[in-house]
Amino acid sequence: MTAPSGVTRLLLVCHASTSATVRAAFPGDEPLDGRGLRRATDLAREFGHGSAACPAELRCVQTAAALGLRIDPDPLLADCDYGRWSGRTLGQVEAAEPEALASWLGDPAAAPHGGESITVLLGRVAGWLAGRAPGRLVAITHPSIIRAAVVHALGAPAAAFWRIDVAPLARVALTGRGGRWQLSYTP
């Protein structure tokens, strides 16, 4: 079944769990953990044998493969660049750099870690959404990308980014037409 003319139907799927998600750490390019791989494999029958837009990070590539999807590489779906915080837990960063962490969590334009600010990430994702052609698309990506897409779709302020929780293998459906997006929830 195809989407009606001029309509984009986008299913964003968060990658499965990794050691970083279990430890509440800023991710690097780590593989799925055993539980994440099993859960993704269990969901494969729901996805069939299509393709998915996917960044190059190992956790997304492994999730797409476990779901039985072919990969269409898309570097714009790469995770937020966490700079020198990559691999460190939130607790470690808070203990070592409390002011920097508070700045990053309180100011979407801040990037004290030397990586990407939330404002820059939101702009990248807004540009990616604007470039979607009508039709159906599945994208395997990261919690940060899904949060940014939801903020954009709702026209919410950048500060809303931190009020959205995206669990491993969470799915968010967006429908777009003429640059406007709707968030859909299907249990």
UniProtKB/TrEMBL annotation:
Domain of life per record: Bacteria
SMART domains in alphabetical order: PGAM (SM00855)
Matching InterPro entries: His_Pase_superF_clade-1, His_PPase_superfam
Classification via Gene3D superfamilies: Phosphoglycerate mutase-like
Name assigned to this protein: Broad specificity phosphatase PhoE
Provenance organism: Streptosporangium subroseum
